[in-house]
Amino acid sequence: MKHAAYALTPNRGERMLRHAVVLYIWALVALPLVALLRFGLREGLVALAEALRSPVALSAIWLTLWTSTLVALINMLLGTATAWALVRYRLPGKTLLAALIDLPLAIPTLVTGLMIAVLYGPLSAAGRMFEAHGIQIVFAQPGIVLALLFVTLPFVIRAVEPVLMEIDKSEEEAAKILGASAIRVFRTVFLPSIAPAVLSSGIRSLGRALGEFGAIVIVAGNIPFRTLTAPVYVFGEIESGTPRTAAAVSLLLLTIALGLHAAAHAIERRIGARDA
Amino acid sequence: MLEHAHSRAAVAPTTIPASALHADARTAAWEGIARAAISGVVLLYLATVLVAPLVALASELTRVGLRAALNALLQPNALFALRMSLVLAAIAVTVNAVLGTLGALVIVRHRFIGRAWLSALADLPLAISPVMIGLSFLLLLGREGWLTPLFDHFGIKIMFAFPGLLIATLFVALPYTLREIVYVLEEIGTSEEEAAATLGASPWQIFWRVTLPNIRFGLAYGVLMTLSRSLGEFGAVLVLGGSISGQTQTATTFIHDAIEERQSAGAYGMAAVLAFTSVALLLTLSWAKRRRQAS
Amino acid sequence: MHIKVEHLCKRFGDFAAVDDVSFEVSDGSLVALLGPSGSGKSTILRILAGLESADSGQVWFDGEPATDLHARVRGVGFVFQHYALFRHLTVAQNIGFGLDVRRVEKSAVRKRVKELLALTGLSGLEQRYPSQLSGGQRQRVALARALAPEPKVLLLDEPFGAVDAKVREELRQWLRRLHDEVGVTSIFVTHDQEEAFSVSDRVLLVNHGRIEQNGTPMEILDDPATEFVARFVGEVNVFPATVRDDRAQSGALNVRIKGSAPSGLAHLVIRSYDLKLWREDPGVATVQRMVTFGDRVRVQALVDGAGPIIAHFPRRSSLLRGVEPGCRVQVEVTTARAYPAEASSLHPIAAT
């Protein structure tokens, strides 16, 4: 740990400011979470588990978990491929594509949902085409996956890109001159370097997908047991004035999300430590 | 590419036997196929997931008609929602610019107990679903909330009112400026500030003349991120504000209600406004990023 | 300004960066703090500037206690290792910074900046930004910036560490001339002994947070106070030896030692240029290798019962006649010193 220089040691005024800032952040972030925790655990863990027993809640949690995991896996695979292609290949319209990658971070998630609903809805050409083959996208599970894919698109790509750019060209050439096959080169030269970044950004996209609400609420149709995800279920429970089940589901998802957040953070810190 | 071929040619005569050269040609052919396959998959993926939805919104907007969309947007409740979003974003940007800068300075430059906790806490809003943020505040400030008696005493209505919207927006936008400046401060180090101190500058002068100019692009970047995030917030604002038309409706909840009420002109119009704004912000962001890297 | 430091201590966790350091620097002199990296020399400098606080000990400037003075009011000019120029300000604004923050009148600032630009040979570059300058130019801007408020002391942390060898030599001579011209008391930190000896009036040799020796360059070269100093300055040979009276015995070597050393086990330290050898059978050593560097020859021989020894000669030295790898030689030591054996291990510290 680097020591702050004595000359820059905060004086009294600066320390007062610090207390104010610390108080603000604790009040804004920690207080509500404590309220949620207290409310959820008010009647004990047994009651909390009981609240999770509702079949609708269970199916919503399950739907959220599997769609998010699927999305994270697709991201890790295709996100890495995209980063690879953007860094190493010449693609048509590459500059435009590279700029568009960040768009999901900027565009409101509700607008994302609307766009996907429009694209694959029953009135659109694409929607009718899929429907003719018996595939329903909007108001069905594929719609949820597509919405989540859009929202989490930049995560893996933006994490892997800089790592790929930094890999020493001579390492790859050395491996090739030694007669390594392309797959072998990828496995020995590239994979070890990008694996931590792929993993941590995959985890981050999983965490993000677990909590997504705006993009899904329009696309999914929110049919219990089929397309009702956990965040939408929580919203419904709040609306109908049953915060107890809402709090129970929230606490479960929140615990998972914080665990994922911590795991991604730990991996990123290890990457940082290695670079330093 | 050229360099690549060159190095291979230079080495081949001495170290690579003839059989390996055939293998090399085969590898090159496979690489060509892999390149084409990966490029194809990636382009298809980006087209389906990213580009097609954007195009769909644009074409739908033209189908509904720009004039109809514009008319819907000029209705009083639409204008109100838009203004509400802008006001919320403006406040969030201002508060975050100040507190984000101070918070980042505190986290990077100060040494105190609980510093790591503060840093983790400031990151937390990124990991929590907006609906659950809404629920948490509801439990804190809602009908049976902890702090409700306090605010009732002063006659301040938070839920389903402007303060509720504001708190939700401040919460979700908190990390954006702060994290950006933490990153920049760590990059820059303290030696310029130390130099200023030995030259006789007061802490106040050091901040305005050295620290702030050094973090200005990070700050600009953070402000744009905050702006974009605040304008786009939906879940938490919906839960805490209730989306009451003409009172607590924001641009995003307006779209939600318009869809529910099948008023597609209003929904697409507002969505297009937000989408256009975010594209504009994105372009400015990438400019700010380039400037930051350059400086 | 006269500087006095007494019993300075500074710990970082378990690590004693500065361990009971005391010294004085007389008004107008140019002093080098010389030592290996991690020896604590930069920390001493930073404590003098008020950038770091001492755990204990006192600092006096001209007899006035300065230990608790804030960096801002010490009147110390500090030149940072990597310059720490304000990247968003021009050269002129950088130099004028220390005057601006003291609310000196604009015209006076302009005048002083102009003077310093001339003094440091930077005229014409005043509107450039630091990123548009070469390493040597940045170094001079940093110096000009530190000198602008007319500090009573100038402190320089590895001032030439970040420029290439040729520029470094120029800057050294320039710093010496500048010091003679301006006359401000200056202390600089370096790990390069050549730099310390060629520029400074006095050298303080620092190791493990302690001052090993405080003397003029000549004193340190001729009379190293400790084994560390002897090993740090110049290339030396070290042998385990037994001392009796004024002689030390190591294998076939038996030499008179300079100064005094307690009888018993000791480390015998011989500079590579403080010895002669010539071809003689049976002699005391066998030549192993000979390497020529320009006008010098480096001879490595194995002394019977003592170990390898290295000697330097002018290339055309008559002593070298007939000397070749494998032959036997006689060794005569002109100057040798012995230090108590527990001081440190037998591995050379700085091979130059």
Per CATH, the superfamily of the largest domain in chain A is MetI-like
Q: Describe the largest sheet of chain A.
A: none
Roughly how much helix do the residues of chain C carry, as a percent range? Answer: 10-25%
Which value, in Å, is the CA radius of gyration of chain C?
24 Å
In whole angstroms, the N-to-C terminal distance of chain A is 13 Å
**Strand order across the largest sheet of chain C:** 6-7-8-3-9-10
Written as H for each helix and E for each strand, in order along the chain, the element string of chain C is EEEHEEEHHHEHEHEEHHEEEEEEEEEE
Structural class of chain A: mainly alpha
- Portion of residues in helices of chain A? over 70%
How much of the sequence of chain A is in beta strands?
Answer: under 5%
Give the rounded overall mean pLDDT of chain C: 88
Number of spatially distinct domains of chain C? 2
Name of the CATH architecture of the largest domain in chain C: 3-Layer(aba) Sandwich
**Annotated CATH architecture of the largest domain in chain A:** Orthogonal Bundle
Task: Indicate how many domains the architecture of chain A comprises.
Answer: 2
What is the CATH top level name of the largest domain in chain C?
Alpha Beta
Number of helices of chain A: 13
Estimated share of beta-strand residues of chain C: 35-45%
Quantity of strands of chain A, as a count: 0
Mean pLDDT of chain A: 87
Low-confidence stretches of chain C: 343-352
